[in-house]
Amino acid sequence: GIAAAAASRSRPPAETPETAPRPETSEDKETIATIDALMETRKLYRDANLNLDRLARKAGIPARQISAAINRAMDRNVSQYVNDYRIGEACRLLSGTEKSVTEVMFEVGFQTKSNFNREFRRVTDMTPVSWRQRKG
Predict the structure, then answer these.
(1) Looking at residue 19, what DSSP letter applies?
(2) With b meaning 16 or more CB within 10 Å and e meaning fewer, what string describes 67-87?
(3) If pLDDT is split at 50, 70 and 90, which confidence band does 5 have?
(4) Residue span of the structural domain in which 125 resides
(5) Based on the number of CB atoms within 10 Å of its own CB, is 58 exposed (0-12), middle (13-18) or buried (19 or more)?
(6) Which of 22, 68, 92, 125 is deepest in the core (most CB within 10 A)?
(7) What is the CATH number of the domain that holds 98?
């Protein structure tokens, strides 16, 4: 349900064959595997200033290649992809620690409460406080 809701918000109402995304390639899979590995091992998403250019430099992969791969394979933009990692860690911290929501927000790489709350709801369909109450 969450994925369907997110997908429905990010797509135009009807796609014509000319605007339909191309299927992902083996290069896309390799690119995403490299980025996923960096996100998981080096926790790059914790960098509040992480953007596509910074990610490209750290990965040694052209920014356009990263952006295209994430768009095609995951049907989201780079910012949403990074925020998915941030929210994943936020969920673990909210249910596994006593840290405040604000502490968690900063630790996982968000700079504003409004952006954190919006992205948290986009990914989980809940507020951070509701998540903690339900999962804690």
Answers:
(1) T
(2) bbbbbbbeebebebbbbbbbb
(3) very low
(4) 84-135
(5) middle
(6) 68
(7) 1.10.10.60
